[in-house]
Amino acid sequence: MSERFGFDRGKPIDRYYIEDFLSRHRGDIRGRVLEVGDPFYTRRFGAGVTRSEVVDPDESNPHATIMADLARADGIESETFDCIICTQVLLLIFEVRAAIRTLERILRPGGVLLATVPGITKVSRGEAELWGDYWRFTSQSARRLFEEAFPPGAVQVEAQGNVLAAVAFLHGLAAEELSQRELDSHDPDFEVTVAVRAAKAPV
Q1: Burial, 104: exposed, middle or buried (Cβ in 10 Å; 0-12, 13-18, 19+)?
Q2: What is the pLDDT of residue 152?
Q3: Could you tell me if residue 102 is inside a domain?
Q4: Spatial distance between the Cα atoms of 109 and 147, rounded to a whole number of angstroms
Q5: What pLDDT score does 203 carry?
Q6: What pTM, to 2 d.p., does this model score?
Q7: Which domain range does residue 108 map to?
Q8: How many DSSP H helices and E strands does the chain contain?
Q9: Largest CA distance in the chain
Q10: What are the 10-residue block averages of pLDDT along the chain, 203 residues in total?
Q11: Which residues have CB under 8 Å from 89's CB, separation 6+?
């Protein structure tokens, strides 16, 4: 139906789940906020954002205010951001543990990381050719990875999806082509999108 995840038909099914997750945690998107790639979700869901920044290793990105690879981001000062939004990025970073450690390091004490990663999806061909497409995640693997960097009890993991949503997403159907009931039905055996809220320990 679509080779572009459904972008040419409407909203991709994984974006339906990502935006639902961010909407429910919009209260965390405040203060100084860092987003990867562009500030789209900061602007859409931010509540009380005082400063918006964008990180990207691509110097040609007009939105980027910080040029850095999250796996090797020594130039980003520690304890800088109140919130970090990192959606569908970690699959593109081979040194995923190093990237998660960076995200924890650059959060201020008490700051929150809102991250999403793919469970069931096809290869992102454009990104694969540019950066690499390395990982798919489950809620179990995401929890173990983030709990290596964040305090015990500070990591909340959820997965969304079901067999119909997974098949529709793989075919490139858009979220608008399924009903809300079909999208919101939860089956733990078909994790389309995995979302993580991780909080840095307060002082």
Answers
A1: buried
A2: 82
A3: yes
A4: 16
A5: 81
A6: 0.97
A7: 22-119+131-160+191-199
A8: 7, 7
A9: 51
A10: 94 98 98 98 96 96 96 95 98 98 98 98 95 97 98 95 98 98 98 98 89
A11: 36, 37, 70, 115
Residues 6+ away with beta carbon under 8 Å from 107? 79, 80, 81, 82, 84, 113, 200
Number of domains in the chain: 1
Q: Which two tokens stand for residue 104?
A: 């924890």
Q: What is the CATH number of the domain that holds 111?
A: 3.40.50.150
Structure tokens at 70: 């999250």
Retrieve residue 10's tokens. Answer: 């409407």
Residue type at position 121? T
Residue 47 has a pLDDT of 86
Spatial contact of 13 and 165, defined as CB atoms under 8 Å apart:
yes
Which residue matches tokens 């990105």? Answer: 61
Enclosing H/E stretch for 139: helix 139-147
Helix (H) or strand (E) run with residue 86 in it: strand 81-87
**What pLDDT score does 163 carry?**
98
